[in-house]
Amino acid sequence: MSSASDPQAAGSAEVFVPVRDEDAMRGFLLQALKANTEAMGRLAERGDKQDGKLDGIVGTLHSIDKRLTVIENNSIERDVKKCREDLDAIDKRLAALEAIENQRKGAMGLWDWFRKSWPAIVGLIAIVAVILNTNGKWGG
Prior knowledge:
Elements: H1 7-10, H2 21-135
């Protein structure tokens, strides 16, 4: 029959040895330092893992940024190409309209000239007819 106060019965292999207070304090300090050192090591490992995760996140964000830049550049190139095609079509249409306008101006210019000059033209024809008639070369 074993009791709870018996170290052999509890399965403990610890033996208590009397020590001086200074040695006990030194032992406690060493144990505390060892525990703190282990805790710092665990924190450093967690920090390294988090740094690795952050590096992965930064890499992913950088990749996304590069993809967005390429997409934006492609979009800009498409927009510029479309604008150039539209501008070419507008240039062709403008050239056709300018040609029509020039023809209209030419016809209107001729009509204006004739409207302003018809008395002189009729007079010139009359003078030519009179000269030809007097020379006998008109109508016979």
